[in-house]
Write a structure and sequence with these properties.
About 75% of the residues lie in helices and about 0% in strands. The protein is built from nine helices and no strands.
């Protein structure tokens, strides 16, 4: 996730959805570190998870803290790498989305999340028996469209490409394969 955000998205002021998308908007407008914003915005969702679904709380708090910390810790070296690469905005939108979506999808696959809106979507998806990646996908579009009203440098079209890539990778990697049933011999 840190690679996707710091190498690819930040250089072209591209947005992602969810809490990290809100963190990116505030980062672009104020310079506040993305991870710090994510931690603050995740507090209400973690309170809900604590009250109604503690396994999600326990499985997500470390994911949110670790991913937020890594994004802020690696900001300068990875941002420098992104400057060195000087990639095309469309390539940045796709690669940024694939890296971020891979991180989110792997965390969801192992019943963790990055907190914030992803945790909220995970709880909703679990209750409604939906793929969490699809729920996150739709919420992300709402956040990107709203955030694009405030961030003038980035492109709404490119940010939507990012969200499509994030949603696709999240959906692909979050799916759990059912294990074949083991049958007892001689029964």
């Amino acid at each position: 996730m840190a690679i996707g955000i710091n190498v690819f998205l930040v250089h072209h002021q591209l947005l992602d959805g969810g809490t990290f998308g809100m963190g990116l908007v505030l980062h672009y407008l104020t310079g506040v570190p993305v991870g710090l914003v994510v931690i603050v915005l995740s507090i209400p969702v973690f309170i809900i998870a604590w009250m109604y679904h503690r396994p999600f709380f326990y499985n997500s708090v470390h994911g949110m803290l670790f991913s937020s910390f890594m994004i802020d810790l690696t900001y300068h070296p990875l941002y420098g790498l992104g400057t060195y690469l000087d990639q095309n905005p469309i390539v940045s939108a796709v690669l940024g989305g694939l890296f971020v979506g891979s991180g989110i999808g792997l965390m969801l696959h192992f019943d963790s999340s990055i907190g914030g809106s992803d945790l909220l979507c995970q709880m909703v998806a679990n209750r409604a028996n939906l793929n969490p990646g699809i729920v996150i996908f739709f919420i992300d579009f709402i956040i990107v469209c709203t955030g694009s009203l405030f961030v003038k440098e980035g492109s709404l079209f490119l940010s939507c490409i990012t969200v499509i890539c994030v949603g696709t990778m999240t959906s692909l990697l979050s799916v759990k394969r059912k294990r074949p049933r083991e049958y007892a011999i001689g029964t």
